[in-house]
What we know:
The complex is a heterodimer.
Chain A: E1 2-7, H1 15-26, E2 32-37, H2 54-65, E3 68-72, H3 82-93, E4 102-108, H4 116-126, E5 134-135, E6 141-143, H5 159-186
Chain B: E1 2-7, H1 15-26, E2 32-36, H2 54-65, E3 68-72, H3 82-90, E4 102-108, H4 116-126, E5 134-135, E6 141-143, H5 159-182, E7 193-201, E8 204-212, E9 217-222, H6 231-246, H7 258-274, H8 279-283, H9 289-292, E10 297-306, H10 310-321, E11 326-329, E12 346-347, H11 351-354, H12 363-371, H13 380-400, H14 411-422, E13 424-425, E14 431-432, H15 436-456, E15 476-477, H16 485-497, E16 501-503, E17 508-514, E18 517-524, E19 530-540, H17 549-555, H18 577-584, E20 589-590, E21 595-601, E22 620-622, H19 636-645, E23 650-654, H20 656-659, H21 667-676, E24 680-682, H22 685-692, H23 696-712, E25 732-744, E26 747-748, E27 755-757, E28 763-769, H24 786-804
Parallel strand pairs in B: 1-2, 1-3, 3-4, 4-5, 4-6, 10-11, 10-19, 11-16, 19-28
Antiparallel strand pairs in B: 7-8, 8-9, 12-15, 13-14, 17-18, 18-19, 20-26, 21-25, 22-23, 23-25, 24-25, 27-28
Helix pairs in contact in B: 6-7, 10-16, 10-24, 13-14, 14-15, 15-24, 22-23
Amino acid sequence: MKYLAIVGTNADVSTNRMLLQFMQKHFASDVDIELCEIKALPAFYEPEGEEVPETVVELSKKIIDADGVIIATPEYDHAIPAVLKSALEWISYTSQALTDKPVLIVGASHGVLGSSRAQAHLRQILDSPELAARIMPSSEFLLGKSQEAFDYAGKLKYPDKLAELNEVFREFLLFTKITTELLAEKAVIKKDKKYTWQE
Amino acid sequence: MKFIAIAGTSAKKSYNRSLLQFMKKYFEQKAEIEIMDIADVPMFNQSDDQSNTEILQMFNDKITESDGVIIATPEYNHSIPSSLKSLIEWLSFELHPLVGKPVMVLGASRDVQGSSRAQLHLRQILDAPGVDANVMPGYEFLLGNAHKAFDENGDLNSERTIDFLEICFLRFMRFSKISNLLNEEEEFEFNPGDYEVSTLGHGGSLPMKVTFSEKRIETIEIDREGETEGLADVVFTRIPDRIIEGQTLNVDALSGASETSNAVLDGVAKAIKLAGVNPDILKRRPKPPSALKREDEEYTCDVVVVGGGGAGLSAAATALQKGANTIVIEKYPAVGGNTIRSGGPVNAANPEWQSGFEENPGERTTIEGLLATDEKLIHAEYLEDFRALKKEFEAYEEKFKGTKGHLFDSPLLHRMQTYFGGKRTDLNGNDIYGQYDLVKIMTDHALESVKWLEEIGVEYDKSIVFAPVGALWRRGHKPVKSYGTAFILALRDYVEASSGKIITDSPVKEFILEDGEIKGVIATGENGQKITIHAKKVVLASGGFGANTKMLKEYNTYWQEIDDNIRTTNSYAMTGDGILLGQSVGAALTGMGFTQMMPVSDPETGELFSGIQVPPENFVIVNTEGKRFVNEFSGRDVLTKAAIEQGGLFYLIADSEIKKTAANTSEEKLELQVAAGTLFKADTIEALAEKVGMNPESLADTIKKYNSYVDAGFDPEFHKDTFSLKVEKAPFYATPRKPAVHHTMGGLKIDTSTRVLDEKGNPIKNLYAAGEVAGGIHAGNRLGGNALTDIFTFGRIAGRTAVEEM
């Protein structure tokens, strides 16, 4: 199994990145997690003709090749950062690589709320027909006070949060498996939905 | 009334823009609507602040001046487009023009939804703290099937739609009028008097006294005892000055000292509350005039020095002594650079002074070891000095034979130790060693630098010869005042008293070039203004690149790996700016792959001054299992490599006697750290081991052995050769440490007069460099205490040469 972990920010220092780095190490025996940065993507624009930026093609390929995607989002102004939104716009406008892909949302914030509003927005965004990801339902991993959350080895210090993360992650492994099985049956049904980009 | 209208998309063709264009035309008689385009707004990035760019300043100014803002948003993926989100992020970061601003949200889409979900998201976003817009409730205008909604003139083709749009717009005009009343300042009056308050600063509680008259904050006095000097000093003058100047709490924190800045602001807010006024009123006031000053500035001088650390201030002081009109331009809010963060001592051989101290056990072994080096391994240019040193030492041994002698030293020993200390091989098998002519200048003129500083006003503690970590020898001149502050304060005062100008907060961005010749520098001022300094000569003294992880990784050829999250002991300003500037005019670089890690740094912050830092002859290094693994008196890179092999983290063990040799701390600070869990303390070695999580027997065994080596003056395990104290008297301490980036040895290639050289070895006209920005001296590894020797010696030379070549 292989997951792609998207760092939802372009900031040089980010506790969301640290969270994913920790998950990568911590769950190394369960699954291979590759970290993915979105900083290099251009700000979204509607390309003329068929030309798609190389970095977008690469990101799409990584998503397609992964069994599931983990997105860590900070919260900027009660919502996800523009740079993450831009990356999702690229995916939805070009490859739609997230369609039917199992997705786990996590997030960290310096305050106590742990990017809760941004995560809720991200759920709605990923649920739009042109993205249509399979977001793991009824699960939330909100890491508040993230600046003090990691020790110098990059390990998550809060025992309650660690237990929570272990559980959410175990569930996501199961969710990935079940979703993949479910979708194997669905594969033949062709979609007949219309959405903005197609009009 | 005047409104700003924003179409929330960067797309060329947009129904949202069409809708705004129709409104502009249709409501022409009622209000003026100006449509602004967001296509050129850069992607928001908190690590790359572009608030001062023309486009964002334009949005800021226009929105600030308007009576309200109309935003028409499309819907992408059930939310607003990233381009609109990016604009709002910029407008809630350093600039906040939307605070209290009336906003009307509407939108159009090709489907029937009319951007319904995006509009809801936008409302939530505009409500976030930092944005704080005043969004008009209700009156939801959703234009569905937008591709069928306009006629060929661009007018809405449905009367019902127009009617509803008009209702919404008229309501918005009324909403704006009333809502803007909220933005007018409430009347208030302070209860006059003095108010004493206390907040939490970086170094503990921060007491202050604020005095009010009925209408004004008159004075703010801060008790600065608990805070470290240097940058905090600037905070304590600048923040209060700005508050009083603008009678406002809308004052920006100083970069690099936000915690202390905010503590001051919080304290004043507390006092305002005690004086009977709602602090929010003062928070909503505009920034003080000096923070808004944006006019370009122009200066002319003889010598401009880029960087206000030890090298730059020495260069400036020397240039001033020689009668040149001099300006120092500094990126940080205060002068000091890395010098102000340094441990204090400056290496200089002064046998006259050092012979007043007894030799330590093992010191002779160190020199014997050095002198036993096979001459084949020594580079030709150093051979003569090596032989001369042998003679010097033979005479010393002759004199003292079997008896206890005094502390031996000479410029030759300093030179050879600098050479051996810097001789290294990188991962690719390339050898590097200190450039002889530069090392000779530094070691021959070191004492002169120390004395020159004394004349400038630095007072030394002559009762101790100090050897910092990795110094290899006791030849450190320690100032009375703690840290590098002593040097910086003396130099700064001297420069200012000699009518030198110091401009802070202004990173230099480029050279002024006329016919390819350097004629000064251009910097960006505190508020984004352009600062042009015409000068005959430019001295680069802007420091290394220890805080630029990307650059470290790019050039590194020495360490197996440089971690993305590596800590640094440096000021965050050390990003290699001077090296890039030099490269822009064709300067050659030397030794860039070699960086020094400070092995004994705080694992969390990279700071040097936490825990108990003592001279290496006194500390005992153990790994997480409680076992020694290295000769504590080794060079910094040996210690770092050994630490990295042990997993990075290790501990310094001290007892109550060793603690007394710590230069950096007080009992009160130590107790705070013990309470915070960043320092461990116990009454027995075994209990200490348990607190840290080591095996008690193994630590006890290590200490027992170590103490026996001190008695014997010989360490059969790791060959530590200089000892002083044993670990025997309770309480015992363990300070956790981990290597952090400390010094970048590489940099611009210079000659012995500090002229910057190009690839062909020719001097670049009008350009000089000194300090960490220059390379060639320390090669693969710098001795502890040699950085200050370097900067004060070459800084003075740079100032002198620049004036002489004018």
